[in-house]
TrEMBL record:
InterPro entries: KR_dom, NAD(P)-bd_dom_sf, Sc_DH/Rdtase_CS, SDR_fam. Pfam families: adh_short_C2 (PF13561). It comes from Lacibacter sediminis. GO terms for molecular function: oxidoreductase activity, acting on the CH-OH group of donors, NAD or NADP as acceptor. This is SDR family oxidoreductase. Belongs to the short-chain dehydrogenases/reductases (SDR) family. Transmembrane segments: none annotated. It comes from the Bacteria. Residues 6-182 form the Ketoreductase domain.
Length: 248
C-alpha cells in the first residue's frame, strides 16, 4: 500500500464478508466506513475494526438517500479512494412462486443500489482521475443454481456492470473489478449444508480444494484489488472459490 492513508466505503460491512473486507482494510491502514441498516450491528463491528473503522447508517434500498450519504462522507472525511459494493439480499424460493415484488426488491438492493452509489462516488473520483471500485459477485453468476432466480439475475448483472464500468471508467484512472466468492465458511453456511447432506456433498465434490473458504480469503482478495499491486488490473471477475467454478 502507498504511504497516503486511503479512504474506503464497504457497504454491508457490519458482518460476514463485508466485515472481513473492512478488517483487511483497517489492519492495513485504510480508513474504512462501513454502511448498513442496523446501527447496533455497525457499532459492534466498529469496535472490532479499531481506530480506522467508522460507520454510517443507511438503507441502500431507499435509493433517494444515497446522494446525501456520499456527500456527507466526502464532506466529513474527504475524497473516497475505494468503494466495495458488498451489500446484498437473497431469497430461496421455487421459480414459479417468486412474485414480481420479490424479484424487484432483490434487484433494487443488489443491482440498482450498486449502480446508484457507484455513480455518486465516481462523480468525485473523476475529479481526481483516481479510484477503485470492487463489486461482490457470486457463484450464482458462474453457473445455474436452483431456487435463487432473482439473486442469480442480480449477480449476473453485477458481472456485466463490472465490465461495462471498467471499460468506461478505466481511461479516467478508475479501476473496476469484482470478486466472486465460492462457498465461504460461516455459522449460517455450515448449518445450511449440514441440514442438506446432498447439497453438502455436491459443494465439496465440485470444489477441487475440498473445503470451504474463510471470510479472510475474500478480505485478502479485496485488499489486493484495492492496492497498488493491482494497478494494471481492471474489468476482472475474480473467483475466490477453491476451484469450485471450474470443478467437474
Amino acid at each position: 500500500m502507498s504511504n497516503k492513508q486511503k479512504l474506503a466505503i464497504v457497504t454491508g460491512g457490519g458482518s460476514g464478508l463485508g466485515l472481513a473486507i473492512a478488517k483487511a482494510f483497517t489492519e492495513n491502514n485504510i480508513k474504512t466506513i462501513i454502511v448498513g441498516r442496523d446501527e447496533e450491528k455497525l457499532k459492534t463491528a466498529k469496535a472490532e475494526l479499531g481506530e480506522n473503522g467508522f460507520y454510517k447508517v443507511c438503507d441502500l434500498s431507499d435509493l433517494s438517500t444515497i446522494p446525501a450519504l456520499i456527500e456527507n462522507i466526502t464532506t466529513e472525511s474527504g475524497p473516497i479512494d475505494i468503494l466495495v459494493n458488498n451489500a446484498g439480499i437473497n431469497q430461496k424460493k421455487v421459480f414459479e412462486e417468486v412474485t414480481d415484488e420479490e424479484f424487484q426488491r432483490i434487484l433494487t438492493t443488489n443491482v440498482t443500489a450498486v449502480f446508484s452509489i457507484s455513480r455518486e462516488v465516481v462523480k468525485d473520483m473523476l475529479k481526481r482521475k483516481s479510484g477503485c471500485i470492487i463489486n461482490i459477485s457470486s457463484m450464482a453468476a458462474q453457473y445455474g443454481l436452483p431456487k435463487v432466480i432473482a439473486y442469480s439475475a442480480s449477480k449476473t448483472a453485477i458481472d456485466g456492470m463490472t465490465r461495462a464500468m471498467a471499460v468506461e471508467l478505466s481511461p479516467n484512472g478508475i479501476r473496476v473489478n469484482a470478486i466472486a466468492p465460492g462457498f465461504i465458511y460461516s455459522a449460517m453456511t455450515e448449518k445450511a449444508l449440514n441440514s442438506d447432506p446432498e447439497r453438502k456433498a455436491k459443494v465439496f465434490n465440485r470444489t477441487p480444494m475440498g473445503h470451504m473458504g474463510q471470510p479472510e480469503d475474500i478480505g485478502a482478495a479485496a485488499l489486493y484489488l484495492a492496492s497498488d499491486a493491482a494497478k494494471y488490473v481492471t474489468g476482472v471477475v475474480l473467483p475466490v472459490d477453491g476451484g469450485n467454478s471450474i470443478g467437474f
